[in-house]
Amino acid sequence: MQVINSLTFKLSTVSLFSILLSLPIILLAHEENNANVVKKDINVDKNLPLYEVINSSYIAKIKPILEKKCFDCHSDATKFPWYYKIPGFKQMIDYDIKKAKKHIDMSKDFPFISHNTPLKDLESLRDVVIENDMPPLRYIIAHWDARLTKSEREAIVKWSEESMSKLREIRYQ
User: Fold this and answer.
1) pTM of the model
2) What are phi and psi of 113, to 5 degrees?
3) 42 is a domain residue
4) In Å, what is the CA distance from 127 to each residue of 6, 116, 120, 132, 150?
5) Number of domains in the chain
6) Any residues with CB less than 8 A from the CB of 77 and at least 6 apart, and which?
7) CA end-to-end span of the chain
8) What is the per-residue pLDDT across 28-72, written as a single tens digit (0 to 9) for each?
């Protein structure tokens, strides 16, 4: 029994020590220059036929991927982790979500709620996926399965580029 208690204590100590060592990495991994992005109201008529076509494609092919990988920060459907109630972590997570949703909020499907036009949102989404800039390192540390797979990245890039092409065609007619 004493061996089990000793082992439990050692595992608890190692776990706590690991968390404390990784805390600076977690806290500093997602610092950006865009912290002061101001959300503008871009008036977009979501009922335009072209947006409906793009949105139906988004819902069928892309939304299931983003729901699993991005919605914790970029939507109103956040699934908070077990450690959310720990002081410090709660504030950090709330800040990250607020900042993420200022950039792009995917809660209402396409066109997204953002500080940019739908075309710019698609370009940004494509670029972030190509450059593998999301999710931030400190999110990956706690959520190993949050990275996009190669096929998921390819699907998002393809959808983004096809959608951008459709928007550009209409814009220049």
Assistant:
1) 0.70
2) -85, 120
3) yes
4) 50, 15, 10, 8, 15
5) 1
6) 67, 71, 107
7) 79
8) 444 444 444 444 445 555 557 899 999 999 999 999 999 999 999
